[in-house]
Design brief:
This protein is an alpha/beta fold. It contains 6 helices and 11 strands. A 7-stranded mixed β-sheet has the order 3-2-1-4-5-11-10, with helices on both faces. A 4-stranded antiparallel β-sheet has the order 6-7-8-9. Bound molecules: S-adenosylmethionine.
């Protein structure tokens, strides 16, 4: 019997290499994201990150004066966050983002790096967005960043990709796609002199128009969609999107 894929499975497996594999490049995308989110939260605003991980975005956002609270299912990711400068003081609830296990209200709730797709059923995604919307003050904003689905990546429901190939290591991505449920199960496979390590990912992607409908069901209005954190236009060629929704003010 294969091991069950739990909410903590992805994070616990990848925690040791997450920051190395997702290091901010010279284009400073994490800093751009923090600038964008700080503007959404407003001066000295409050923010809730669902799937805070190692604090890649939350720590630079907190450094801009925003009071950030996080939720994450993976104790190992949270350990990594705690070990970083500026990470120890951030309140983090270890739990399932499907339940949004937080009280209080926030100026901003955000979920980035396609983390909403970690909920692998449509009804769970709808419920999580409704619970997230309920944590917004009237007029508060929900920001979702995610990749734009591209089923053409798959050939007869599968894809194998060489992510890196060096003299002493390779990293492969082996994926299976089910277009009916919009789910992808993949393994990133790292092969080094120390052996083979598996990093499983299970996701359900959401079409942007589907996301807008989910947000509408949650009582949110679409404010703006761009193709990136620096306000790049969202076009048919965009591989990702940053979308801002708002809880209507009374
Ligand atoms: C792609 S990482 C993104 C981390 C961080 N937001 C960032 O931008 O670097 C996804 C994060 O969501 C967490 N996660 C996945 N499924 C979850 C769930 N059901 N409930 C809570 N956290 C979850 C993982 O542990 C991981 O830390």
């Amino acid at each position: 019997m294969p091991e069950p894929f739990e909410p903590r499975t992805y994070g616990d497996a990848i925690a040791d290499v997450y920051d190395e594999w997702n290091a901010d490049g010279p284009d400073g995308v994490a800093e751009a994201a923090a600038d964008f989110l700080a503007r959404c939260a407003g001066e000295r605003g409050t923010a809730l990150e669902l799937g805070i991980g190692t604090g890649r975005i939350a720590i630079p956002l907190a450094a801009r004066g925003i009071a950030v609270t996080g939720v994450d299912a993976s104790p190992r990711m949270v350990e990594r966050l705690r070990a970083k400068p500026g990470g120890a003081g951030l309140p983090v609830i270890v739990g399932d983002l499907a339940d949004v296990p937080v009280s209080g209200s926030f100026d901003l709730v955000y979920i980035v790096a396609s983390t909403l797709y970690c909920l692998t059923e449509q009804q769970t995604q709808v419920r999580a967005l409704s619970l997230a919307a309920a944590r917004l003050r009237p007029g508060g904003r929900l920001v979702v960043e995610a990749f734009v689905p591209d089923p053409s990546r798959f050939d007869r429901g599968q894809r194998v990709e060489a992510r890196t190939a060096d003299t002493d290591a390779v990293r492969l991505d082996v994926a299976r796609h089910d277009p009916v449920t919009q789910t992808v199960f993949s393994q990133q496979i790292a092969i080094t002199a120390d052996g083979i390590r598996l990093y499983p990912v299970h996701l359900r992607y959401i079409w942007p128009a589907e996301l807008d409908l989910m947000a509408r069901l949650a009582g949110l209005d679409l404010v703006h969609r761009s193709g990136g954190w620096r306000g790049e236009p969202y076009t048919a060629a965009s591989s990702g999107h940053v979308t801002v929704y708002q809880r209507p003010a009374p």
